[in-house]
Amino acid sequence: MAVSVKIPTPLRRLTNQESTVSAAGDDVAAMIESLEGSFPGIKARLCDDDGELRHFVNIYINGEDIRYIDGTSTELSDGDEVSIVPAVAGG
């Protein structure tokens, strides 16, 4: 199944400057693996060494934060829109 993934500006150098890419997977973890297969190095930016989503990375499926659903086990459906949003800090 294919989903549309919106890529934030800091990660676009890994996606050949594409702002939206397609990925496959039944859940978010599989989608991240799909992205890694197409864009090597992106998984390291999204996940820590244990494969867990980094604290400063937020992922939304159709506007819903996966941290409040099932995390990286959140299921995906064909045509879902996934947004990767890095946390912003400042003062």
List keywords for this structure.
single chain; alpha+beta; Ubiquitin-like (UB roll); 5-stranded mixed sheet
Structure description:
By secondary structure, the protein is an alpha+beta fold. The chain contains two helices and five strands. The protein has a five-stranded mixed sheet with strand order 2-1-5-3-4, covered by helices on one side. About 20% of the residues are buried.
How are the elements arranged and paired?
Blueprint: E1 2-6, E2 20-24, H1 28-38, H2 42-46, E3 57-61, E4 64-65, E5 81-86
Describe the structure in brief:
By secondary structure, the chain is of the alpha+beta class.
Strand line-up of the largest beta sheet: 2-1-5-3-4
CATH-level-4 superfamily name: Beta-grasp domain
Total of domains: 1
CATH topology: Ubiquitin-like (UB roll)
Strand content is: 25-35%
Mean pLDDT: 94
